[in-house]
Amino acid sequence: MSEQAWPPLVIVVGAGGVGKTTLAASMGLLSAEKAEDTLVMTFDPSLRLKDALGVGEEAKGDEVQVTDHLWASLLDAKQTFDRLVARYSPDDQARDRILHNRYYNHLAGGLAGILEYMAVERLFEVSESGRFERIVLDTPPTRQALDFLEAPTRIVGFLDSGALRIALRPWFDGQGNLRPTARLGRLGRRFESYLDEVVGLDLLREMVEFFQAFAPLFDGFRERAEQVEKLLRSPSTLFVLVAGPGEEKIPDALFFARRLRDAGYTLGPIVVNRMHPRIEAHEREGEGEVGQVDGMDLFHWLGDRDARGFEELGQLVGQDHPVVGLPLLESEPSDVETLRQLASEFEDRLQEAE
């Protein structure tokens, strides 16, 4: 698939430490230099994109312009969650009730899956705005990226779960006492005191209030999650899989590729990044010590290893996906100029792979 045929949304996925962030930034720059308004965004907690494109904290939650046609954005989960609450709250009172809830402010941002769901929410928000001709999304390592893809399904499952219906029951009366224990007299008060020591009734009250306050928003959340699910599986969304070099990296690449295809996502090129160059073996001067490894011997072995892995991966994926090999650079691209060089290399290699 040529770069000109890239769809409006490109999602870069893969294992940790393979250069996804740098590649995503270079792909965004490549798109922008064809006079297409492009946004590169990340929800990787390490925020390496901030360094790669030279943007600051102001890029969290908002788009910051990098070049004439290139913008960058870093996910701020709390800010995105606040906007979501404000959008779906039926009135200002309901909105403030949630935003000022202590459980929401201290715990909600750290709940399992919140980061991933806020990421897809933010992605959908930007996509729907129509401000950009192309969006390139950088993701965290494989496991969290899979959590990201599954977030819409999980949020719908949670909203339809029995656990949520239980949480929405009127557990506390107007005085803040547990209704179920009030009918048990002294025994009930003892049990309530025990719960207070073990769990903390204040925490339970805040949790119940949190879910009850959210009840009017659940339909909006469900609708949004279903729309995001359609966006991720749309033909207008392309996944680019980045893998490390060497034969030992092939299983990870095949695992992720299979998961994407089985789930109905559109997988495009597979990029084998940071490949050592293949060099000729050299003659040693003298015998040397037994077991001693010359530096050039090591580079020769690494080059052969990476070439074998690249060839094997290409044979395994067949003609379904182009496999692109990118060389190991002397230093990691750290500014627009070095990203531009990587972008040019990527474009040339992609055309060769097709």
Summarize the structure.
The chain has 354 residues and is α/β, with parallel strands linked by helices. Helices cover 53% and strands 13% of the residues.
Task: Explain the overall architecture.
The structure is a single chain. The chain is an alpha/beta fold and 354 residues long. It has one domain: P-loop containing nucleotide triphosphate hydrolases (Rossmann fold, 3-Layer(aba) Sandwich), CATH 3.40.50.300. 53% of the residues lie in helices and 13% in strands. Strands 3-4-2-5-1-6-7-8 form an 8-stranded mixed beta sheet, with helices on both faces. Helix 13 links the parallel strand 6 and strand 7. Helix 3 crosses helix 6, helix 4 packs antiparallel against helix 11 and helix 6 packs across helix 12.
SSE topology sketch:
Layout: E1 9-14, H1 20-32, E2 38-42, H2 48-53, E3 64-67, E4 70-74, H3 77-88, H4 92-99, H5 102-106, H6 114-129, E5 134-138, H7 142-159, H8 162-167, H9 179-182, H10 185-198, H11 201-214, H12 218-233, E6 237-243, H13 250-262, E7 267-275, H14 295-317, E8 323-327, H15 336-353
Parallel strand pairs: 1-5, 1-6, 2-4, 2-5, 6-7, 7-8
Antiparallel strand pairs: 3-4
State the main characteristics.
354 residues, alpha/beta, Rossmann fold, eight-stranded mixed beta sheet
Count the domains. 1
Beta strand %: 5-15%
Uncertain stretches: none
Rg over CA atoms:
25 Å
Which sheet architecture does the biggest sheet show? 8 strands, mixed
Question: What is the straight-line distance between the termini?
Answer: 7 Å
